[in-house]
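Figure S4 source data
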Amino acid sequence: MLNIFESIALIMVIVVGSMTCLWLIHRIWPSEQRRKHNDLIGWQMSVIGTTYAVIIGFMLYAVWTNFQVADGNAGAEANSLVNVARASKGLAAEARTRIQSLVSDYVNVMITDEWPAMDRIQISPKSARIVEQLWTTVTNTETHSASQQASLSRTLAELDDMTQHRRLRLLQVTEGIPFILWTVLIVGGAIMIVSACLFGSEEFKLQFVQVFMLSVLLSLALVSIADISRPFQGAVHVTTEAFEHARETLDNMNR
């Protein structure tokens, strides 16, 4: 849900804050005095670091898995939509033309309206209207032969699948990491940085570099989790590629 500039700004804020924390601790509590407690601080850092690494790893895995599910679901929605147009070929000309026209309209709305709206955590009302029109058209279609009945049944099945994928996508638009988990991630990161700053080093420049690298790594992990946690917003998001392929397929079908 973060764009590139927001991600860079957040990384810079975390790194600068970490360096400031190290400088303040160094001024208030000199390294010579802190070295007396290195055994205790080092043990605490080891336990805290291991625990926080597990939490970060789990969260990255969870948000990336959710992202892949959202991407696959969008692709399945587009595929089911194309299948609606294919299955309708066996229907009467009037119904077939109407269904294929609505399918094309839905694909165009996805690309031009729905995806930009989802980036704002909204839903385009145009897509909902087209879905209602599709259902009305398909359910009111009359059949006059066994082949038309088979085509209608297949069209209804694909439309039902498409609707289910659409409903799941709408839920995924507003899903995100709960506040309590963000609290764990942020507080845990702050504890890690402070623990690293408390360690008493004979060479301050070396500790400065170590804290800098640690803060960069933690900020990159947090920014990655924040960006991927909402699959349809931010710099890294599910694209309209599946619907663009669907539009190409529909164009080829109508030629």
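Figure S5 source data
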Amino acid sequence: MLPQDLPAALLKLDTSQLRRQRAVLDTPQGVEIAIAGQNYLSFASNDYLGLANHPELVAALIAGAQRWGVGSGSSHLLSGHFAVQEEAENACAQFVGLPAALLFGSGYAANLAVISSLLGRDDAVFADKLNHASLNDACLLSRATFKRFAHNDLAQLEYLLAHTPAKTRLIAVDTVYSMDGDEAPLVALLALAEKYQAWLYLDDAHGFGVLGAGRGALGEHALHSERVIYMATLGKAAGVSGAFVAASQNVITWLLNKARPYIYTTAQAPALSCAILASLDIIASASPQRAHLQQLIALTQQRLASSHYPCPPSRTPIQPIIVGSEAQTLALAAHLRTQGFWVPAIRPPTVAVGSARLRLSLSAQHQPQQLDALFDCLRQAGNTKS
């Protein structure tokens, strides 16, 4: 697109109800937020355990800054790798039961790093059609043959694996899909990876901290294989920011030497690792919060089942209210805002055309009566059964 076409292109976004805008918060992250002077009950954040403003994490970050300063100064491979970062990487690896781990500035960077460093032109990558955009971008940038299979379609995936001449193969999936809240069949995927000698790369952005007693998809499904490469983001349930990749020591050493998004960027602030260490301790003991989340999930499923909307069988904090029309979805989100509820409207291209939705993200800080109030508001708007 040429620069002179941008005004027309932006107008087209407006007319098709697809222009995005940022909401500027006046408060810390939480279920009760303020935007532009108005108070809202928020169902928009992926802060599933309510740790983003946890006093122990705040204190750990402050203490870390006092001990280690603010900036890292350079990349990890020059002089920007600190003892506390080494400690955090070891703790992350131990937490998910893998030999070694590497910290990254974001899950997006981690996905780019892993897939682009393990694959090249003569290789092949197989990805679920509902994967996150960062996984798709990583597959494209790897220059490997990129094959997408229908969502959770193991038969199609096996056919593709059986008919590729590529020597190096990688299967890439989200463990929990961010728009529907459903899960990948990880045990069956690992069986295929082992049968066809492929890597299995797991993006556990929405499972870490919630599933498997907080230890994520690996703990939930007891996956043990050197073919597994695991990524968890730290800015969702962990309440901090960044991500880590965990795998065999050989894989981590390879990434340290070959992963361009890791090598050619300034390291994270070392103080952040102090907050990561504190977060892991809290997640390990957060069984009551996870139990409360399950109660909220069950309540949401119950209310959706009695509504006009489809009820995807999600056992995760991601609970979509699928409306269909972009305009109707935006109108419903706007109505909820007038009643004090902040629920994001998700539209194409994030989801397929005709499946625009409100996306509820539940937090352990939510209370059942708050969920009831939200669904009562939807019913009063004429959008659910009485």
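The radius of gyration is 21 Å. The chain has a mean pLDDT of 94.
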